[in-house]
């Protein structure tokens, strides 16, 4: 399995888009990666927008991002909550500084905006935050998946298959 030994952070908070959280998690696990759900409190259950729950394995404070090979930010309304946590911003900035894979889909771009890492980067997102992404200095494209170095971005659930593949491929390199 090509991702055996890789460890990934999957951020979680309430109102995540169910498929945008679970599809990449399952895809990466199929290839041998260990994926930890990381939220405000360890053991806390978070409901997805459509009712599929996700329980945090660890709290933001419990992990050291240096121990991980990449990070995934889910879409839905969750990113608006996640970007309010200093530890989340620090994790994303750490991954960016180390050039480790960062995956973001749909509204997840809000977290990258708050981490101030998009200036000069090529990305996509839900068209609903296109202006936010561009105002943060990003060059925005209306494409299923955009990869700029270690950042992989996607628009919405129909783009999950190529998004998860691109993220897995980046981890495997």
From TrEMBL:
Gene Ontology biological-process annotations: proteolysis
Domain of life: Bacteria
GO MF: peptidase activity
Stored SUPFAM superfamilies: Class I glutamine amidotransferase-like
InterPro entries per record: C56_PfpI-like, Class_I_gatase-like, DJ-1/PfpI
Keywords assigned: Hydrolase, Protease
Record-annotated membrane-spanning stretches: none
Sequence ranges assigned to domain DJ-1/PfpI in this UniProt record: 6-167
Family statement drawn from the similarity comment of this UniProt entry: Belongs to the peptidase C56 family.
NCBIfam families in alphabetical order: PfpI (TIGR01382)
Name assigned to this protein: DJ-1/PfpI/YhbO family deglycase/protease
Source species: Halobacillus litoralis
């Amino acid at each position: 399995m090509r991702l055996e030994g890789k460890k990934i952070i999957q951020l979680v908070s309430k109102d995540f888009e169910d498929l945008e959280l679970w599809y990449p998690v399952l895809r990466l696990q199929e290839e041998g990666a260990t994926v930890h759900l990381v939220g405000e409190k360890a053991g806390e259950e978070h409901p997805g927008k459509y009712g599929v729950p996700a329980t945090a394995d660890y709290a933001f404070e419990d992990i050291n991002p240096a121990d991980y090979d990449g990070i995934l930010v889910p879409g839905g309304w969750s990113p608006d909550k996640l970007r309010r946590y200093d530890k989340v911003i620090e994790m994303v900035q750490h991954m960016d500084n180390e050039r480790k894979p960062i995956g973001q889909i749909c509204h997840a771009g809000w977290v990258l905006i708050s981490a101030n890492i998009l200036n000069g980067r090529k990305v996509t997102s839900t068209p609903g935050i296109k202006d936010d992404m561009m105002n943060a200095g990003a060059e925005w494209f209306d494409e299923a998946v955009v990869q700029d170095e270690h950042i992989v971005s996607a628009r919405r659930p129909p783009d999950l298959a190529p998004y998860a593949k691109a993220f897995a491929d980046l981890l495997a390199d």
